[in-house]
Amino acid sequence: MSDGMRDGIVDAHVHLWDTAAMRISWFAERLGLPRRVGPDDLARATATSPVPVRAAVAVQAADTEGEARWLAARAAAHGPLPGPVVLQYDARPGEPAAWAGMAQPLLDDGVPVAGLRLAVPGGAADLSDVPGLDALCEGLAATGRVLETLVRPEQLAAVGALAGRHPALDVVVCHLGLGAGAPDQAWCDALAALAARPRVHAKLSGLHTTGPDDADRVAAIARAAVDLLGTERLLFGSDWPMSARIAPYADVVARTAHALPALDDGATAAVWSGTAERLYGVTA
Questions:
Q1: Burial group, residue 151, by CB count within 10 angstroms (0-12, 13-18, 19+)
Q2: pLDDT of the chain along its 284 residues, tens only?
Q3: Which residues is 227 bridged to in the sheet?
Q4: 100: which residues sit within 8 A by CB, 6+ positions away?
Q5: What is the domain extent for residue 155?
Q6: Of 253, 266, 261, 251, which Cα lies nearest the Cα of 225?
Q7: Pairing of strands 17-18, 9-14
Q8: How many domains does the chain have?
Q9: CATH code for the domain in which residue 119 is found
Q10: What's the CA gap between 99 and 35, in Å, rounded?
Q11: From CA 66, how far away is CA 168, in angstroms rounded?
Q12: Which backbone phi and psi does 86 adopt, to 5 degrees?
């Protein structure tokens, strides 16, 4: 591993949940995921990493207030892992003061929240079906929080337009807006358009598959991301434990490192820790 990783990794994308404590709407046995993944499980997984994991950004798995409080409580009790918390945005259109939607009561109670995630890959391409979207962005920018987006490639143009309307807001695109998909020209063009928005960032997360040509595909994605966005706007994320269905944690780290083009130490440090530290206020 590069000297740029010698100070350790900040994993910008992990999940925790407990199906016995709360309902996870999308959870199904056929997915092959554990019913519970807590801070101790995360610590065991990250301990296998070839480079120490100093902190991890915990992204809420579902979208209820009870689950959000469960996640925030575990982050507060088990620092530095997971570390900062990003909660889901679930709009409350009947409550004008609730710009953060479901998460508003936690913010009002002073619960540490680093950002909110807009998870709408099944929604309209132009994001026109998301209630309160501009109010959400205004609230996040005013409070120094990050907007994360989980979108499909066709929605990346709308993310860019949103960033253009809110130039003081830091935006982070999960899984590069692509995930396990193929890096075709339409995606590259969309990523190039996002690059014109200086506060749009993207996570190198959720990319790996079990396909025989996966290494070449992820390398092509990583090269395009570095070329278009630059390393100061990219963050490593394991997407654990979702990624554990594809490969063990240590392999996800190694495969991501292998996929990246040759970088100097400063650029390497930005991808693996520096960008996440800056955006999410990681101090570990």
A1: buried
A2: 677 788 899 999 999 999 999 989 999 999 999 999 999 999 999 999 999 999 999 999 999 999 999 999 999 998 889 999 999 999 998 888 999 999 999 999 999 999 999 999 999 999 999 999 999 999 999 999 999 999 999 999 999 999 999 999 999 999 999 999 989 999 999 999 999 999 999 999 999 999 999 999 999 999 999 999 999 999 999 999 999 999 999 999 999 999 999 999 999 999 999 999 999 999 76
A3: none
A4: 89, 107, 116, 136, 139
A5: 3-280
A6: 261
A7: unpaired
A8: 1
A9: 3.20.20.140
A10: 32
A11: 30
A12: -115, 125
Residue with tokens 């809110």: 166
Helices (H) and strands (E) in the chain, counts: 10, 10
State the amino acid at position 41 in one-letter form. Answer: D
Task: Give backbone dihedrals phi and psi of 88, rounded to 5 degrees, phi first.
Answer: -75, 150
The token pair at 70 is 């469960």
* The model's pTM: 0.96
Residue 268 CB contacts under 8 Å (≥ 6 apart), including other chains: 2, 3, 4, 5, 231, 260
Checking DSSP bridges between strand 115-119 and strand 85-88, what pairing results, if any? parallel
User: 227-231: long-range contacts at Cβ-Cβ below 8 A with a sequence spacing of 24 or more?
Assistant: 228/188, 228/191, 228/192, 228/194, 228/195, 229/191, 229/194, 229/195, 229/200, 229/201, 229/202, 230/195, 231/263, 231/267, 231/268, 231/270, 231/271, 231/275
